[in-house]
Task: inverse folding
């Protein structure tokens, strides 16, 4: 009886630890050849950042990222040196559109705001 219970517990734990694919498709308006990254914290203690996916935008600003995670976690979406915060969910598909920041291109460096993006998701929920 204990042997069967142990097998059930092990199977339950192994099933909960499997990674699921996450896909991010997007467009950064008029921003070709820019570095795009998804960043998470390596651990909850040091807040050391870890890049889990990266790519370069194409000539029209389009990009696609795919990676695997095994649990919902806080992360950052980065375009160049600018970041925006969001939560990553295993198995989710994200669509990110980044409009051209007119304050950054026409204004002072002191008028800069965090990365402005439009995020939609299909997380099965």
Result:
């Amino acid at each position: 009886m204990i042997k069967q219970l142990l097998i059930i517990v092990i199977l339950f734990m192994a099933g909960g630890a499997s990674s699921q694919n996450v896909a991010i498709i997007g467009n950064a308006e008029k921003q070709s050849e820019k570095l795009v990254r998804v960043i998470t914290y390596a651990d909850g203690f040091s807040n050391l950042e870890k890049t889990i996916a990266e790519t370069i935008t194409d000539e029209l600003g389009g990009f696609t990222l795919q990676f695997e995670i095994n649990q919902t976690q806080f992360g950052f979406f980065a375009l160049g040196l600018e970041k925006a915060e969001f939560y990553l969910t295993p198995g989710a598909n994200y669509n990110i559109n980044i409009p051209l920041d007119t304050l950054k291109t026409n204004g002072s460096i002191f008028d800069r705001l965090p990365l402005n993006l439009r995020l939609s998701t299909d997380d099965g929920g």
In short: The mean pLDDT is 84. The two ends are 37 Å apart (CA to CA). DSSP finds two helices and eight strands in the chain. Residues 54 and 75 are 13 Å apart (CA to CA).
